[in-house]
Amino acid sequence: SGPSFAGALVLSLVAALYSRGVFYEHNPLRKAMVLYRVDLLLIYFVSVLIQSYIATFELIYRMLTGRYDPGIVRIHTRLRSGLGRAVLANTISLIPGTLSLWMSGDHLYVHWFDRKTTHSLKAGNMIKKHTENYLDRIFG
């Protein structure tokens, strides 16, 4: 039992080291700053929390009144960091009424419960609000 476990451990480590380049191109955290600004992270989390509460009440109102127009919009992000873009996409999905569907380069496709505009730039400004500014300062 002991030699079998040791052999399995060695073989799994060899397999992991060998296949690491296949599954992971690079470590996104290496390109990002090692020490993030804690004050900006705190402001970012508070901002997302406030946006979530506002969006929740708006979503409930829209559902009860039946005044909504769902649709998919394409928005552009100016974030250069892949990690920053991924965090932005996930943050958009955390806000009630929006769901990130696809990320292609510097564009995100977002399902918007109440599509207020089909114009890409205006929709991006309405959906991302201050989130992109904080993420740009945190991740670059």
Task: Give a quick rundown of the structure.
The protein contains six helices and three strands, in the order H-H-H-E-H-E-E-H-H. It is an alpha+beta fold.
Describe this structure in words.
It is a single chain. This protein is of the alpha+beta class and 140 residues long. The chain has helices spanning 2-23, 28-31, 38-65, 82-94, 120-128, 131-139, and strands at 71-76, 98-104, 107-112. It has six helices and three strands. Helix 3 packs antiparallel against helix 6 (131-139) and helix 4 packs antiparallel against helix 6 (131-139). Helix content is 61%, strand content 14%.
SSE string = HHHEHEEHH
Q: Proportion of β residues?
A: 5-15%
Give the structural class.
alpha+beta
Q: Rounded to an integer, what's the Rg over CA atoms?
A: 20 Å
Count the DSSP helices. Answer: 6
Helicity range: 55-70%
Instruction: Tell me how many strands there are.
Output: 3
Q: Largest beta sheet, briefly?
A: 3 strands, antiparallel
In oligomeric terms, what are we looking at?
single chain
Unreliable stretches: none
Report the span from N to C terminus: 50 Å
Shape category: elongated
Mean pLDDT: 83
Which strand order does the major sheet show?
1-3-2
